[in-house]
Amino acid sequence: MDPNGIPNGIGKAMKHLDLDGHELPPSPAPSSPSAGRKYALATELVYTESNDQFNSSSTPIYQSATFKGGPGQEYDYTRSGNPTRSHLERHLAKIMNANRALVVSSGMGACDVITRILKPGDEVVTGNDLYGGTNRLLTYLKENGGIIVHHVDTTTLESVQGVLMEKTAMVLLETPTNPLIKVADVAGIASAAHAANPSAIVAVDNTMLSPYLANPLDLGADVVYESGTKYLSGHHDVMAGVIGVNNVALGEKFYFMINSTGCGLAPFDSWLLLRGIKTLSVRMEKQQANAMAIAQFLESHGFKVRYPGLKSHPQYALHWSQARGAGAVLSFETGSIALSERIVEATRLFGISVSFGCVNSLISMPCRMSHASIDPATRKERALPEDIIRLCVGIEDLTDLVDDLSQALVRAGAVRLTENGFEALEHHSAGRTTQVVDEP
């Protein structure tokens, strides 16, 4: 004890027990920004406070596995905590409207940490249009961990309410979904889940929007998580996952998992993510402006386009009631798998790749790439079109992007010439659809 009766040294170290009674090092510098946001979000993304001894303009990288000193110091081993990671977590908590943020080595790592609180016999309610990796993890838990998983259409509250019960331990939502761009009523579902079981955890994957466009915790979610690899980084040069919570006990449980399994984000990766977050505002504004223009371009030429920025989206009003933007991911259909393949292969500026949120524009066929781990029968059951093309729009010049898409559509034979230019072979307008038959 010091003269004021405050534990120090060994006494301070031994005083800490986590929520389950384990004598483990405390979570270093838990996030909880005392003053919350002070400025507009675009400013907060850039503005960070640091007590670095040399007043460095950029947060230092503490590239160290260990820290000298005795028991009770804030940092001892980077698996348990690192100053660079702590700074990132405090910054993320601020922009996510969270009491606490935690960062791990990937978006799926974040999902894994969250689902580790489930026990055999627990029931999980989730969507029928899930990211392939999430679907793979839940399938594993169902087949090996005794977890019961209900896949439902999360676009209707009634469908979700139909499977909610006292045994529902978790509701796992994606909104908008990828690649069908379905929108879930986060507030409505969270309220229904907590009514069915007050202890149920509502976790929302916010990767498709980022904290810049949506804050699910404000809508009643218990957990928000996302792949920091996408918009938060913006350059596809770092793998990261982010978890945000308001409940202190839940935050400690997640930290226990991270510390136990060693999946916390490395110092250099933490620094890269901090750097990427600073430009999130300017990147997202440009990306979604480009995405909106491309969605309108494709729709005006007769393609069936899925994008929440379009008023033709069936859940346009719901999306804008809980988000500040539409994001930069859209999908469209051609009516033919072979035709879609030719379009994807004919683009030049759009890189053929999985993932999204990068400054570079990307194109893919999800059923052949990001969602290939979902078996064809399940994809058919969930009405995931095999011909669907996903566009992840970047910050390039809009005219160049539209020109690239136009030449790809023409070279692939996906359009027919008209007096006003061209239109899709399978034209979706005025209730008329001309079907394209796949080539043998």
Automatic annotation (TrEMBL):
Pathway: Amino-acid biosynthesis; L-methionine biosynthesis via de novo pathway; L-homocysteine from L-cystathionine: step 1/1. It holds the Pfam family Cys_Met_Meta_PP. One of its GO terms (biological process) is 'de novo' L-methionine biosynthetic process. PROSITE patterns: CYS_MET_METAB_PP. It catalyses: an S-substituted L-cysteine + H2O = a thiol + pyruvate + NH4(+); L,L-cystathionine + H2O = L-homocysteine + pyruvate + NH4(+). CDD domains: CGS_like. It is an enzyme of class 4 (lyase). Its EC number is 4.4.1.13. Its cofactor is pyridoxal 5'-phosphate. Belongs to the trans-sulfuration enzymes family. This is Cystathionine beta-lyase. The lineage of its organism: Eukaryota, Fungi, Dikarya, Ascomycota, Pezizomycotina. The gene is STR3.
